[in-house]
Amino acid sequence: MPENCPVCGQHYEPEPGFYWGAMYISFGFSVPIVLLTGAVLYWLAGDPDTWVYVTCVAIIMLVLTPPSFRYARAVMLYAFGGVRFDPSYLKHK
Ligand SMILES: [Zn+2]
């Protein structure tokens, strides 16, 4: 992650350790994914063995970790970093 936005120069880290809170946001993304995966497996696969649940959830979480990591940081920055997207800024450049 660059220190500043290459387009507008916005500094991405308001304070040291700012993104620790993104762990909780990422956790908030993960819980519904795990529950939804379990529910889908239960209904579509007819309550398979435990190893099927664990394997499917592990694979899905591994695939979704990069976007979850990035979206959690973006949500953290928007929610607590005082950053707002201003589309009109791009028109002035
Ligand atoms: Zn920017």
Automatic annotation (TrEMBL):
TM annotation in the entry: 21-45, 51-69
Alphabetical list of InterPro entries matching this protein: DUF983 (IPR009325)
Keyword annotations from UniProtKB, A to Z: Membrane, Transmembrane, Transmembrane helix
One of the Pfam families matching this protein, by short name: DUF983
Protein name in UniProt: DUF983 domain-containing protein
Source species of the chain: Hymenobacter ginkgonis
